Amino acid sequence: MQQSDRGIRLSFSTSNDGLMLKQIQAVHVPDGRAIDVRPLLHIVEDILSFAAPSGDAIVETGKQATGTEAFQHQTNYQTNITDMLETLSFLIDRISIEMARKCSETREEHATTMSILSMVSNYPWDAKLVIALSAFAVNYGEFWLLAQCYTSNQLAKNLAILKQVPGILQHSTMLKSRFDTIKDLITAMLDIAKCLVEFKEIPSNYVTEDVAAAVSAAMDHVPVAIYWTIRSMLATASQITGLSGSENELSSHNLYAVDAKSPNLAPLVSVDVLRKRNVLLLISDLDILQDEVVILQQIYEESRRQSNSLDQNPYELVWLPVLDSSVSLSKIKQRIFENLTATMTWFTLGHPSLLNRAVFKFIKEEWGFEQKPIVVVLDPQGRVTCSNAIHMMWIWGNLASPFTIAKEDALWKAETLTLDFLVDGIDPVILKWISEERFIFLYGGEDIEWIRNFTHTVKTAARACGIAMEMVYVGKRNPKENIRRNMAIINEEKLSHCLPDITAIWYFWIRIESMWNSKHRLGKADENDPITQEIMTLLSYDGGEGYGWALLGKGSTEFTKARGTTFLTCLSDYNLWAEDVQTKGLVSAIHDYFLQNPTPHHCNRLVLPGTADRLPEMVTCSECRRTMERYILYHCCDE
Fold this sequence. Notes:
alpha/beta; Glutaredoxin
């Protein structure tokens, strides 16, 4: 799991430090036994050293496993530790089992840490930490022992196959950064343990009155330091448990648990970050648009600004790039993947090849992923609450949280199609005009000559009416370079206002597409739903060839719309409806003109988003209400 350095803190760190210290001290009941844990610490240090998790170590460990240097190194203190292990071995075994079992459950790591501290409640502080570290070393060492020996020892090979160790080693290069991070954390844990042991070994006659206060202050930090060191062991153990493939099961109910704890999501961010939270799985291939990433980024960052801490974040977002893992990435695709992950501040899969093939198949067959990105929503128990929330996110952003079907339906019941709903927060200038009750033309199309003619005619009609009118160019769906050129010309010639940039134009249209998709999923994309009809009209305007279209609105309540030629004719016939402006208002006067002067012929082309097998069998024309003929369109534009 990769994320920007905005910083993720473990959930418990946000609570009161004093309360945490009281909880730790409540399970500290030493019985006065004296124990020298330095020999045990030596063994632990050797285990963790020989099992160093780096990409190079995986290749070289065979040499370490067959050498005798390690055995000879241990003989100096082996006899001194035998009696101690007779006393501690059972306890170490219990704790290692607790770590292996609990780190893979959805229980809070805080509770597991406190459970381990309770097991060592009778021991002094330094012994608590070294005993816990010994239990961690048992699990950690067993894993790497298999990694080192499975190629030369048949028993180790069979065990390694069961734990999927060979598959992990195949990805050793891609996992190197994770191994390096684990190594750094283990080094820090060892440093703390050695520091604590050395601190205890300071002769009492060295602790003079002038340093006694400093020693006491240092001791005050020991309980919390031990607590977080054990938490770090659990976080690392969780990664090792995932690497060993012990959780590579798959169902629609536990997919995020699989991906959060297996190699699919990586390193050392505690699984607590995803546990007990709504998780949004952003699923796409490498063709995800930069516009999509930019808008998702804004939505994601807004959710963070609206919450005061990690615990209050309404959801976590995880990108799963879905590619066939049996096909290696080319250098170009690898670069595309790296560039995409560099722009994402949410969690991402470490590499597309890490996505389990069973998960790959499940995503395509059960969730219907094809080419366009989808967002699958999982509740805190890992259950799917929405198979694709991306339309909700485009339409309402974080207002749709927790992104359930029920929430989607509730939002539509409270919604009406107004000018401010169409524009949303895409352009603050337009929202300001709406609040000021100005007359606003939204217009689109790609023919620059029609744009020049339309904007000139609107300005002429505005002067004739004595009414100020604002105009905003919203381009066309899937904007290409020609729309960018149009925007440059419009701004240079001061023909009208434009949406801020090409991404804003894309977002304007993807929201309208998403409105149709959302209505269709809820079973309300029919001729009896007024919002659906308005959406389909706008989509048919955009899908038409040739001239553009326009929508005139005032404030947030009223608007009328027509194709470009119809609107130009209407504005040119100003004298036919001018008198009605005084009694009906400009928008109503123009709307009545359209009703009274219908075009003799029309040829509407409605291009609906989606795939052929998921589109409605019957669609009615937004103008004449007759059933439209159905065609399947294949379109490619490499502009």
